[in-house]
Design goal:
The protein is built from 12 helices and 14 strands. The chain is α/β, with parallel strands linked by helices and about 375 residues long. It folds into 2 domains: about 30-150 and about 285-350, 3-Layer(aba) Sandwich (Rossmann fold); about 155-280 and about 365-380, 3-Layer(aba) Sandwich (Rossmann fold), CATH 3.40.50. Helix 7 crosses helix 8.
Amino acid sequence: MRKMSYFFIAFVIIFSLFFSVKSSITSTDDSIRIGVTLSLTGKFSVMGNEQRNGYKIWEKNVNERGGILGKKVKVTIYDDGGDTETAKQIYERMIVKEKMDFLFGPYSSPITHAVLPITERFDYPLIISGAGASSIWEKGYKNAIGVYTPSDRVAQGFLELLVKNNIKKVAILSADDPHSRDVAKGALSFAKKFDMDVIMFESFKKDTRDLTSLAIKVRNSGAEALLVGGHLNEAIDMRLALKKINYYPKAYFASVGAALDEYYKSLKEDANLTFSSSLWTEKAGFSGAKKFYEDYLKTFNKPPAYHAALAYAGGQVLEEAIRRKGTLDRKKIREALFNMDTITIIGRFGIDHTGRQIRQHGFITQWQKGKKEIVWPDQLATANPIF
């Protein structure tokens, strides 16, 4: 009898300790944990680090406002080095072992393509602020939440400017990654709608650094304008190739990379006259944009690239969905995301049934005398385009 009482007492103590520990863990778990990988090193590192900075500013701002649903937000950022296999391993770990509440998407369309099957398998909504290839939303995923204008629409404004200025002969080149191909395909579609003459349409292998032979083909084709789908390296390398052969078309457009300050830092005066696409400007006056710009400038001692603003907007979208539903239940948050029509610092957010962004629109910029000016649309232009 006495032996049974000892067992009973021991059981009560162990039982009490178990629930005491469990209760302690629950009571201190007062944060909303969000995971993401970005290319903090490797070929996409400039854009990846901008996105990291954007997420950190959002995390800081939302926590200063008291968090979400009374909980602090913690964004954990890993470096995938621009490698798809590394990103896949990290996303599975964040879901299975770290049990993140939510996930932001990685930078670049190839890496986003690689991790989406994982987030689909575990039914995690993926807030995509670093990829815009249209093919992402053509595979039937139910958790791919696009934050900004898909890649196939980013060149529309540039082509409108060409037509408006009676420039109709265009060469379209692109690297062979998903984003760059989509930029080129979209440009080709708009060029046909605008009755333009596309006299070159070619792709080249991603990470090809010497583009001289392509620049020569453009010059010999008689093209008046050159449009290049790519990232920072492609934008810089094509400009260097044009300089090498002592040729410049009436208009040169390069997606993504030419909108970064690093483009001008690398090329100096040779960056002038280059057109590019941008998906954000503080001058548009969207709510919170000015504060984001000032906070970023104060924190990092430089103005934000649009990639940082896209990341911040992704945070805003998730924040609004959680507030509307009043829960961290991912199925309910996904439902909110698919039905939301809201404003972020980059403009209007709203997606179709595939998750593709349909309400946010970008801008066309041009480097003029060392400054990045908005040249399209007209109502937001800070300067006239120079051809």
